[in-house]
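thought: fold this chain, then report.
action: predict
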Amino acid sequence: MKLSCKNVLLAVWAVFPLSAAEAPYVITYSHQMEEPGNLEIETITTTGRPGEGNRFFGNALELEYGVKGWWTTEVYLDGTAEARESTVFTGYRWENRFRLLHREHWINPVLYVEFENINGADKSLREVVGFDSEEDLAEAVAGARREKKRELEAKLILGSYWKGWNFSENFIAEKNLRHEPYEFGYAIGISRPLGLVAEPGSCRFCAENWQAGMEMFGGLGTHDDFGLRGTSHYAAPAVAWTSPGGLTIRVSPAFGVTGASAPFLLRFGVSYEITQFRRIARQWLGGGR
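observation:
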């Protein structure tokens, strides 16, 4: 008996209790960490048609796991599909986030470290650094996939809550482990639930299940040419809806605001959080009681 991907996902959703509460950001990280023992499965797709290039669909499948209250780890599997070209697997990323202060403060710092093993065809657009531009997105998959990238990326994530508002700031530094210079970038976000008081009982489309916000992100050049000149920058409104059953859907159009940017990108994501995954996995493997 053959099991399709759809059947496997339906089986997972039927067995595991699901829960999710997501900010609307696609690029910007807040200081929120995954709950210990929980597993979140998410797919995020970015699509656009840059300049004279073909329309592309850059996808990242994310598996995020809460190791400790102060430590979240995540694996990305990336791929790109391009009109009149091919669909290719572009590599993987391994991310770890460490919360530096365990209690909630006015400003909450998180250290992010990621190893990337991808190729030049990757268009998942998880960040913009250095002089990343529309030309990079327009390059055909067939030629770009020959470029190998092994990179180390670090982020300083700062997050705050104030009267229901979330404020998040990310400073990004990235280094190709072979020869490239240090590249820098940023992402900032502001968001708020549409309702701060939960309705009594179960409510699928109540205001508290919706979050809306805005992101700004872009490159800051390199260590020997730091600044805004010649770099890409985007403004991106974002909205997210979380169902009582755990499904979260995010949509975010991004508008380029400089000449180096792609004029328009559309990002959308779907995620599920499997609560108490650690306990359930132990029971399945016979190691739990």
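thought: worth noting. The first strand starts at residue 39 and ends at 48.
final: tokens above.
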